[in-house]
Write a structure and sequence with these properties.
The structure is a homodimer.
Chain A lengths: L5 E6 L3 E2 L5 E2 L5 H13 L4 E5 L3 H15 L2 H5 L1 H7 L2 E4 L2 H12 L4 E4 L10 H10 L2 E6 L30 H13 L5
Parallel strand pairs in A: 1-4, 1-7, 4-5, 6-7
Antiparallel strand pairs in A: 2-3
Helix pairs in contact in A: 1-4, 1-7, 2-4, 6-7
């Protein structure tokens, strides 16, 4: 498929909790693995983990080292392969800057949120992947903080299943979004 | 959407390991939660966990009780809602029989496997969801045992991303399959 570079960012701050309060969530080992493997499957260029907490950054680095160079690399090389996409950043802006420098162009953040009522359709965003380098921005906890939606960045329409239930795990939402945006037309 | 009943089964035996040997995998707490939440989102009727190991069945029951009736039900009622779809069976045949009795009709298993070269397209299977009650059968470990593919049951084509990487987590594969099979046409 003829498309521009695409990265995924998983944001642990600023996000909201179930009461809507601004929080920093903990990095989940399984989010790192699952989203890295899905991103690798769909040819995503990078996967940024965004957290301002230094201890969390250290934890991520240990996970990465284990699977890229340690025992894990021998046991299951596919994990290291997927995790080679992972980068860490202390803020979304830092991730955007870092990736922008790597590709020599300013990437456009594409925000997501299960509670949003607005948003571009998947067809529109599929077209967008062909014209602009994008960073698909996923929130943890109960979603990205409202302040991020005040920047005039485009928002991807929420995933609607066949029910009123609207609580997909972020790992599943990431998989569905990447499939909708990047899968080959022939399935 | 006008469709027939559809269930998902997550099989822990018979499956194969990385060497192709027949094994029984352990039930993973997160598989239960993630796939239940995705199934609930897409209006799936039931989610069967298949394992012959009695200790594992007991573990699953404890998880279900916690979220359906215990502390978890107060803390996050959405979890209990999703987990209400879960049933346990000691074999795939038992799951098929149990569900067949519930709907008064024999469901057709729809097998899946990342390593398969054959298989019905998603478009064909989307049509199938409208004519037959189906049980989408997912393998853990390195996939469903070859013996299951000798029964003349239909097989769903593997998910192809945009790379040669073919190691999606089963949680992500389940999400992508249910979205492709059951999502509304408007996205």
């Amino acid at each position: 498929m003829n498309r521009r570079p695409l990265a995924v960012a998983l944001v642990h701050h600023p996000v909201v909790d179930r009461r809507g309060d601004l929080v920093t969530t903990a990095v989940t080992n399984l989010d790192v693995h699952d989203i890295a493997r899905t991103a690798r499957t769909y040819g995503v260029d990078r996967f940024y983990l965004v957290t301002p907490v230094q201890d969390q950054l250290t934890l991520i680095q240990r996970i990465l080292d284990h699977w890229r160079q340690g025992h894990g690399a021998d046991y299951n090389p596919h994990r290291g392969d997927a995790l080679s996409l992972v980068r860490v950043s202390t803020s979304l802006q830092e991730a955007l800057t870092d990736w922008g420098e790597a590709i020599g162009e300013t990437p456009l953040p594409l925000l997501t949120g299960a509670q949003r009522q607005d948003g571009l359709s998947y067809e529109e965003c599929r077209e967008l992947t062909k014209t602009r380098p994008l960073m698909l921005v996923l929130g943890t906890g109960w979603g990205l903080a409202p302040s991020l939606f005040e920047r005039d960045w485009p928002v991807l329409a929420p995933i609607r299943g066949n029910s009123d239930y609207n609580h997909l795990p972020v790992r599943a939402a990431a998989a569905i979004m990447l499939d909708r945006l990047l899968a080959p037309d022939e399935k």
